[in-house]
Amino acid sequence: MQKKGKIYLDRQYEIGEVDKRIYSSMIEHMERVVYGGIYEPDHPLADEDGFRRDVIELVRELQIPMIRYPGGNFLSGYNWEDGVGPVDKRPVRLDLAWIAEEPNLVGTDEYMKWAAKTDTEVNMAVNLGTRGADAARNLVEYCNYEGGSYWSDLRKKNGAEKPYGIKTWCLGNEMDGPWQICHKTPEEYGRLALESGRLMKKVDKNIELVLCGSSNTSIATYPSWDAKVLEEAYDITDYISLHNYFSIVDSNMKDFLAGNIELERQIETIIATCDFVKSKVRGDKTVHLSFDEWGIWNREETANRAKWKFDWSDKNAISEGSYNFADALLTGAMLMSFINHSDRVKIACQAQLVNHLSLFNCIKGGKIWKQTIYYPFLYTSVYGRGTALKTIMDGPVYSCESYERVSVLESAAVINEEKRNLTIFVLNRDTEEDLETEFVFRGFEELREIEHIVYHDEDLEAVNTPENPDYVIPHKKAAGRIEKESYTTVLEKSSWHMIRFEY
After folding, report:
1. Cα end-to-end distance, the chain, whole Å
2. Three-state SS across 98-161?
3. Burial level of 445, CB count in 10 A (0-12/13-18/19+)?
4. CA dist 341 to 65, 495, 502, Å?
5. 280 alpha-carbon distance from chain centroid
6. What is the C-alpha separation between 239 and 172, in angstroms, rounded?
7. Cis before 132? omega within 30
8. Could you tell me which of 116, 127, 68 has the C-alpha nearest to residue 93?
9. I want to staple 26 with a disulfide (CB 3.0 to 4.6 A). Which of 34, 87, 189, 351 is the partner?
10. What integer pLDDT is reported at residue 300 of this predicted model?
11. Which residues contact 81 (CB under 8 A, 6 or more apart)?
12. What is the per-residue pLDDT for 1?
């Protein structure tokens, strides 16, 4: 007998408005993300500024609203002044985060040009490792002040007459981590973030600031770090950051496909921490969450980590590799988790955009190819905009090493009243059996199915490659059965779905 499941959805049970910025990404100066990724001036498709047009087209296709820049670990040793002014006069610096030479061919002004070409906002990060409040406030002045001051006039001299108007700013990167250049204690960082933020907001009162939260859930100071730094810097903080990456361990697929459960626990822990601090300091504002690094370690990167030399002879792009179909399924599940916490998660940056743990990869001098994880990100970004509705799932469960009861179903729903559309994203984690699933709607009348996209492959290890870039791609599925406020379809084993309705 075929397994069956149900998903309940009530139009009145709203979670919150989905902030489009949860479909953001990240670009860091490391390996081939910038040089050989977005920027390759001798490529046949390079534009007048050296940027690859095919990369720009894919960013637009993904409808990415914002990208975090310029790091990442790179940030904590970066002097932003090295990346402005005449390119031929810029210094080559040693990047101590990734043991590389940074040519500074792409800096603030070049990146802002690229952002304008891709229609993306910039989530700019300031160095609170080797630098501090003075460099941070100067960068805000350079980017956002109208004119008449030293740094704003220098921007004009460098070719940007109008201010960039960057709204979102990260106060450093992973400052709790001992791997970070000039990492801090929570007391040191909290004080530095507070004073830097105060100066930055004096230059531009309209900016929003992201405070560094814990860099992962396994570090010993999680989540006490978050509470301490937020208590110190609550007055200037609009968001606190979260980071997490996932990888499969010992081929444990059941654990891996349930990884978004850990993601949700992390979100809920930091929400509780923010609200505790709000009460403790007797604050009147709610601090929201910026999950500004999330993703999956691909197999090649995981394997190569043990081989890193960390010396100047290691010039390999060690973290480039391919994502398999199982990675795509977890990616889809994590995006659902952001939607289902849209009342507090306002920013999420997939890391990274290109070539490193990426949505797509570039061949030097050649073509571009999409990773398996590209597709759930694409469909969720394009159609997951509106108001998130709560879904309740009733179906088979399983137990695994890390979690006691895991629903084989994962789901999220977004209603767009303006377009009169309802979009449901669903994952079937069961690796052995299909699941006949009934969707029970309340508050909807005369739903009509627009399309049903299914992403399924019998081989969870299947990958796209430069030679076969369309090996694992989604396709349209036959319409399900609608009866009044009920919709029934079969969800293939190990499959991700997007089902769109109009009303």
Report:
1. 34
2. CCEEECCCCCHHHHHHHHHHHCCEEEEEECCCCCCHHHHHHHHHHHHCCCCCHHHHHHHHCCCC
3. exposed
4. 19, 22, 24
5. 30
6. 13
7. no
8. 127
9. 351
10. 73
11. 135
12. 72
- How far is the C-alpha of 355 from the C-alpha of 297, rounded, in Å? 13
CA 196 – CA 184 distance, rounded (Å): 15
The pair phi, psi for residue 432, each rounded to 5°, is: -120, -30
Judged on CB neighbours under 10 Å (0-12, 13-18, 19+), 94 is exposed
Cβ atoms of 395 and 6 within 8 Å: the answer is: yes
Looking from the CA of 154 toward its CB, the CA atoms found within 13 Å total 15
Domains of the chain, each with CATH number or no CATH: 3-12+389-502 (2.60.40.1180), 19-383 (3.20.20.80)
> Where does residue 284 rank: exposed (0-12), middle (13-18), buried (19+ CB within 10 A)?
exposed
CA dist., res. 111 & res. 51, Å (int) = 10
Amino acid letter, 474: P
**Burial of residue 402 (number of CB atoms within 10 Å: 0-12, 13-18, 19+):** middle
For tokens 């709204």, the residue is 167
Q: How many residues does the chain have?
A: 503
Looking at residue 16, its amino acid is G
| Separation of CA 382 from chain center | 15
Residue pLDDT, tens place only, 182-241: 999 999 999 999 999 999 999 999 999 999 999 999 999 999 999 999 999 999 999 999
Residue 82 CB-half CA count within 13 A: 15
**421 φ/ψ sector (left φ>0, alpha ψ -120 to 50, else beta):** beta
Answer whether residue 305 shows pLDDT above 80: no
Supply 293's token pair.
């690094």
Task: Dump the DSSP string for 381-424.
Answer: HHH--SEEEEEEEES-EE--SS-S-EESEEEEEEEETTTTEEEE
Cα–Cα dist 489/436, whole Å: 6
Residue 155, both tokens: 């921007």
Q: Hey, how many other C-beta atoms are within 10 angstroms of the C-beta on 85?
A: 15
- The arithmetic mean of pLDDT across residues 399-417, rounded, is 96
- Just list the catalytic residues: 174, 293
Residues 6+ apart with CB under 8 A from 146: 152, 163
Sheet harboring 3-17: ordered strands across? 475-476, 448-456, 495-502, 421-428, 409-416, 387-394, 3-17, 435-442, 486-491, 481-483
Between CA 140 and CA 124 the distance in angstroms is 9
Residue 315: how many CA atoms within 13 Å on its side-chain side? 3
Please say whether the beta carbons of 73 and 181 come within 8 A. yes
